[in-house]
Design brief:
Largest sheet: none
Structural class: mainly alpha
Distance between the termini: 22 Å
Radius of gyration: 20 Å
Number of helices: 19
Helix content: over 70%
């Protein structure tokens, strides 16, 4: 398992060191220079000519400040910006192995961990694209694992706050994590809230006090691009639905889809708190499924989580979404998908929908009072009493 994770990391780093990457690499380089000039807090209130809106949470600014400092020492920024996501995938492969081992046996866990390590979609989005999506997802899954499996609510709260401090996407899983902590009893809830609140105050507090309106506009209200390449918006466009419907979906309507994701996560967490890693996986996957924005790096949101839900679900999604990403990045532009890439994206959407459906079914099929089993030793494989699925 560790060998596969190491091979996956090496593959990503080789790609990062030998390819220019998409436009985001150059955009992040511009952001890093701006953060160095204005600081990670004041960056939100300054216009950045030639760059898109700076829509990243506060911790990303501190990361960029550090990476820019390393680049000034002679290291390649293009390689550095893709290192956090690549390292996150390495950790996520081990994390998924640990999560699945408690629910479906060691052999299935090894397959799922290797699946994450060698996932084509994660290699493409982390090793070539970079961005911070993989880091945020890794922290979100870690929070669920620490809370449900390790019984470490304080550390889980810290991990949850870190996830939304790197990229705001995992905010949809925060209510589910709090509900699971509530189901664990008052002491668990208090320790989880303390860890979350302390880290949140440390990272977000200075920005909320200094530039609250700019943070709200840039980060909290960011709706994504207006391209019609993925999912519901893509299907609506193909079907010729009225322009007003598509505009609503991409405007205020996208908050309704976010609420659906939050509600689904809260519902599942209340019914099956012991299956919290699977609940987080479903919530993040549903966010991608219902997303009205498009971006090849967004395919990361569901990649590791589908392996938590099941080996076949993870494999199917990783292969279809991976081919989508590879062909998309090899085209003229990562934000202008060719017709084959659009068709593969539609196929990936269907595969994701099917995987989420089976994942929810398996979560609900577990007994509410059945906690994950204790972690067996690495040397002794455990015989699974169930089929080769990650949540039973």
């Amino acid at each position: 398992m560790l060998i596969a994770a190491a091979v996956g990391l090496l593959t990503r780093m080789v790609i990062a060191a030998n390819s220019p990457g998409p436009a985001d690499v150059r955009i992040f380089a511009g952001f890093a220079k701006a953060v160095t000039v204005y600081g990670p807090i004041r960056i939100y209130e300054h216009p950045l000519p030639g760059l898109p809106v700076y829509n990243h949470p506060p911790l990303a600014g501190w990361m960029l400040l550090g990476l820019n400092g390393l680049s000034e020492l002679g290291m390649s920024f293009a390689t550095l910006i893709r290192s956090p996501a690549s390292l996150a995938d390495f950790c996520c492969a081990i994390l998924v192995f640990e999560i699945v081992r408690r629910r479906a046996g060691q052999s299935t866990a090894v397959l799922c961990g290797i699946g994450v390590a060698l996932s084509p979609v994660l290699i493409a989005t982390s090793g070539y694209h970079g961005n911070t999506d993989a880091v945020a997802i890794a922290f979100a899954l870690a929070a669920a694992h620490l809370l449900a499996d390790r019984k470490s609510p304080l550390a889980a709260g810290v991990a949850a706050a870190l996830s939304i401090s790197v990229k705001f996407v995992p905010v949809v899983v925060i209510p589910a994590l709090f509900v699971a902590a509530l189901r664990g009893g008052r002491p668990v809830l208090l320790r989880f809230a303390a860890g979350f609140g302390a880290l949140f105050a440390l990272v977000w507090g200075p920005v909320l006090v200094t530039v609250p309106l700019q943070l709200k506009e840039n980060v909290l209200e960011y709706a994504g691009s207006g391209y019609r390449l993925w999912g519901l918006v893509r299907f609506a466009d193909v079907l010729g639905l009225p322009e007003s419907v598509i505009t609503f979906m991409q405007g205020g309507g996208h908050f309704l889809f976010v609420l659906v994701c939050v509600a689904a996560g809260v519902w599942l967490a209340w019914l099956r708190p012991a299956q919290l890693p699977g609940v987080v996986a479903v919530t993040l996957g549903l966010l991608l499924l219902l997303s009205t924005a498009s971006g090849l790096q967004y395919l990361t949101w569901a990649a590791a989580g589908t392996f938590v839900l099941g080996w076949w679900e993870g494999l199917a999604y990783s292969c279809v979404a991976g081919l989508t990403a590879v062909l998309g990045y090899s085209g003229r532009s990562a934000v202008r998908w060719s017709e084959p890439v659009l068709e593969l994206g539609a196929a990936g959407w269907i595969v994701l929908a099917a995987g989420l459906a089976t994942g929810v079914r398996r979560i609900l099929a577990t007994r509410p009072d059945t906690p994950p089993v204790a972690c067996p030793p690495l040397a002794g494989p455990r015989t699974s009493q169930r089929s080769g699925t990650a949540v039973n």
